[in-house]
Structure formats: structure tokens, C-alpha cells
């Protein structure tokens, strides 16, 4: 029979083997790369995901190998034309050399601090060489590419690759923006007043031209009407003369009837004439002849 001591020793040996096995195994995730350290000194870098072995006295440090974000706080930058800009930018990077990264900065937090300093310096250098309008509108893509290239060269010494740099916002400071807005507002008001003045002048020219054309048309129409009226009067006189030549009595009768019609239109028309006046000759005799005076 086995003694109890033998069982305890076997159990302790198995426990020791399990502890050594546990300390000798480590796993690497697909999103990580691992540095193996021996008493604080790096001895190996493992980038393949899976289960790996190490000496029990060695330790491991996992470093993210995904693309990481760097948020840069807004800062003021002076452009080439001496205009101040508030620039809000961010960067994306990844750790391409885990050993160099660990030896230079040691952690992602320290790397973010170092990259923020480098990014601010690159922003000031690049944006300080161009005018305000190039930053805001004309050359923003080219400028972001230049900033990324400079930042990538400087970050290479830390085992970092800068993937992208973007300027989220580039604008004037609030007080400058208000001054620019007021200046733009004044300029637009001046342009609007100029446009209104030009419009008023053009309207006055159109009205004057229309009035002049209306006067000419009215004068021509009046002249044509007078000519037509003159032709009509001449034709009327010709017809009257022709009628008088054909039948003088009828012509006299017609003229008298016309005179009656024109003179007796109103109900309060009054005539101060003798009853035996020539005007009333058709009232007493249908032929219009006056009666001969009686002989004494």
C-alpha cells in the first residue's frame, strides 16, 4: 500500500507541473502583438495569433496592432498671411514595430502624448506656409497629405506608422469670425444698395423711354385722327355741296332739322327769338316758306 506521504508528493508534483505549464503558455489575439520579456528585457516579439510557449520566468506585454485614433485638441495656428486660425484635427495610426514602440514610449497613452506634440508642430509648420484661403478651401487635401507625411516620418522612430491625418475644422477665432461677418454684411448691404440704385436708374430710363414713345405715339395718333377728321369733313362738305346742287330745298330742310336736333336736346333750352324768325320757318310751314304779308 502507498503511504499518504507519497500521494501528497505526487499531488504537489502535479500541481507544480500545472503551474509551470500555465506560466509557460501565453495566447496572442488577432488584434494584438506580444513582446516577451526576460527580467524586463525584451527577448522576442510574437505577431502570429494563437497559443505560444515561453520560459516560465519570462513575462509578456500585449500591444494593440489595430488602427488607433488620436484626437487632437483645437489650437490656434497663424497662416502665412498672418491670419489666425482655429484648427481641429485628428490622426489615425498603428504600431508597426512593437519592440521599438515599447523601448521608445512604452504605452499607448505615452504615444498619444508624443504624437499630439508632433501633430501640433506639423500643423504649425505646414499651415504657416500657406494663406488662409488655401487652408479653408483650395488646398486642404494637399495640406493634410503633407502633414501626414511629416508626422509619419517623425513617428517612425517610435515604431508608429501614421495612416491618416484629417483637418476636421479650420476657421477664424470667434471674435475674428464676427468681425468678418460684420464686414461681409456691410459689403453685401453696399452691393444691395448699389444694385437698387442701378435698378432705379434703369427703371427711370425705361419709364422715360416709355413716356417718350407714348407721347410720340399719341401725337402720331392725334395727327392721323386730325387728318382723318379733315378728310371726313371735306367729304361731308363735298356731299353737302353735291346735295345742295341737286335739291336746294331738301338741303335747307335737312340743315334746319339738324339745327333743331342739336339746339333742342335739353329740356331747359330757351331761345330768345322772334316767332317769325327764319329759324322757326318750318314750324309754321312744312315747305319752310314764309307767308306773304297781307295787303292793306
UniProtKB/TrEMBL annotation:
Membrane topology: Single-pass membrane protein
Subcellular location: Membrane
Classification via InterPro entries: Band_7 (IPR001107), Band_7/SPFH_dom_sf (IPR036013), HflC (IPR010200)
SUPFAM superfamilies in alphabetical order: Band 7/SPFH domain
Main location: membrane
Superkingdom as given in the UniProt entry: Bacteria
Domain Band span(s) in chain numbering: 23-184
The keyword 4Fe-4S is assigned to this record: no
Gene Ontology MF term list: peptidase activity
Any one GO BP annotation for this protein: proteolysis
Keywords per UniProt: Hydrolase, Membrane, Protease, Transmembrane, Transmembrane helix
Keyword Zinc: no
Record's function text: HflC and HflK could regulate a protease.
Similarity field: Belongs to the band 7/mec-2 family. HflC subfamily.
PANTHER family in the cross-refs: MODULATOR OF FTSH PROTEASE HFLC
The name this protein goes by in its record: Protein HflC
Species of the source: Bradyrhizobium xenonodulans
Amino acid at each position: 500500500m502507498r503511504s499518504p506521504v507519497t500521494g501528497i508528493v505526487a499531488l504537489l508534483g502535479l500541481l507544480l507541473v500545472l503551474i509551470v505549464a500555465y506560466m509557460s503558455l501565453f495566447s496572442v489575439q488577432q488584434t494584438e502583438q506580444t513582446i516577451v520579456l526576460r527580467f524586463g528585457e525584451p527577448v522576442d516579439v510574437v505577431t502570429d495569433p494563437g497559443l505560444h510557449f515561453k520560459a516560465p520566468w519570462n513575462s509578456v506585454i500585449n500591444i494593440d496592432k489595430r488602427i488607433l485614433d488620436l484626437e487632437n485638441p483645437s489650437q490656434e495656428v497663424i497662416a502665412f498671411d498672418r491670419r489666425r486660425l482655429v484648427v481641429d484635427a485628428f490622426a489615425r495610426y498603428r504600431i508597426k514595430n512593437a519592440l521599438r514602440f515599447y523601448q521608445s514610449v512604452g504605452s499607448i497613452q505615452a504615444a498619444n502624448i508624443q504624437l499630439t506634440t508632433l501633430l501640433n508642430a506639423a500643423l504649425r509648420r505646414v499651415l504657416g506656409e500657406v494663406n488662409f484661403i488655401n487652408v479653408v478651401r483650395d488646398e486642404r487635401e494637399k495640406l493634410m497629405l503633407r502633414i501626414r507625411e511629416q508626422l509619419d516620418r517623425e513617428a517612425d522612430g517610435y515604431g508608429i506608422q501614421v495612416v491618416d491625418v484629417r483637418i476636421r475644422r479650420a476657421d477664424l477665432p470667434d471674435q475674428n469670425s464676427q468681425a468678418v461677418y460684420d464686414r461681409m454684411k456691410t459689403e453685401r448691404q453696399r452691393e444691395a444698395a448699389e444694385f437698387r440704385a442701378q435698378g432705379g436708374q434703369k427703371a427711370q430710363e425705361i419709364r422715360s423711354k416709355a413716356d417718350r414713345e407714348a407721347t410720340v405715339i399719341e401725337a402720331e395718333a392725334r395727327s392721323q385722327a386730325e387728318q382723318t377728321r379733315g378728310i371726313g369733313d371735306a367729304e361731308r362738305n363735298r356731299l353737302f355741296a353735291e346735295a345742295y346742287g341737286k335739291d336746294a330745298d331738301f338741303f335747307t330742310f335737312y340743315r334746319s332739322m339738324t339745327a333743331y336736333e342739336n339746339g333742342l336736346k335739353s329740356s331747359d333750352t330757351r331761345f330768345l327769338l322772334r316767332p317769325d324768325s327764319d329759324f322757326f320757318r318750318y314750324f309754321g310751314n312744312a315747305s319752310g316758306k314764309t307767308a306773304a304779308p297781307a295787303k292793306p
